[in-house]
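Quick start: read one record
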Amino acid sequence: MSGVVRVELRRDAGRLGAHSGPWLRRNQIARFVGAPDPRLIAHVVDHRGATIGWGLVSAVSNITVRMLAFAEAQPADDWLEHRLCAAFAARTTLGFEAAGTTGYRVVNSEGDGLPGLVVDRYGDELVVQLATAPIAAREADIAAWLGRSWTGAVHFVVPEGATRHEGITATARSERGGTLRFREDGLQLEVPAPPAQKTGAYFDQRDNRRLVAGLAAAHGGPLLDIGCHVGGFALYAARAGLDVVALDRSETALLHARRNAEKNGALAVTWVLADMFEPLRDPALQGPFGTIVFDPPKLAARRDDVDAAVETAAIVIGNLAKRLLPGGQIVVCSCSHHLGREHLDRIVLRTGLPFARTLALGAGADHPVALGHREGEYLRVNVYQAR
């Protein structure tokens, strides 16, 4: 039986259960009975001592307990292995291989009942993110299971935010760097491998890249991809036969983007090195465009950042809207759960131009969201058409 630490909640902790989401914050907790060791299972009880459920404890973090189950019975000792098996099996049923895709998310943290653990597949390799102290404490167990279940290379990384907010001390790792190669909807793609500062292929946008390319092709006119990373929306649109201009401020990202265009039949894209928040003076960016994609980095890390984020994005969108063909469309993306669809609407309203929202999109099926976990539904992609 796993060791247990008792977590007693305050009287005013609120009505808790699956409906309230899997996170318990420091201000909801009255005290720990026993050392809040991240290697232990947390037995969560209310102020009367009644069992609320079981979770993982992270004493340093403001998100102090991440629930594994709202139930009377403690999870079995093999809960980690069982949930890893279930997550991998669930991705197999999605049929990615048959669709020409070998890059996708295999474990999506709370959405797979494994809070703090993210596993992404890139072809024959896996990238494992240990984002909480309790998951980092179980690295050896995760590595052992993957060693039995996966034949390719496995890269373990600790996100920078986890070292700050979770008190994780990243252990020395001998990563090879270089590139990760995979297929997405038949496209041959690559991204920087760990320990590069900026890795990943934003698998959560895969379905949206395909859909937007179809919308742009139906409308006609060139496509402008603002924040293209290693190709993103630009490559899908170029494959659909559109003239494409793509911008990113990262030289490394654009290097891989150019390689990705070449390895897919020399797809015709004009790549521009620039900051999306600076004046867009490059002649290639002037348009007019039939479709413009605005896919910025996270603009609102905290709730207090929302108003400033709306203001910043509204300035950029107002500038971009002037480069749109009549009846054209703007795709506005947010990867912050604090910046909801209503905020994206506010951003577009600030242009003072007549737009209608035609689509509200999110992440794909390989990014499941735990019921009640509002923070897990972080990706919003709204499509607006000029009227």
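The longest strand covers residues 324-334.
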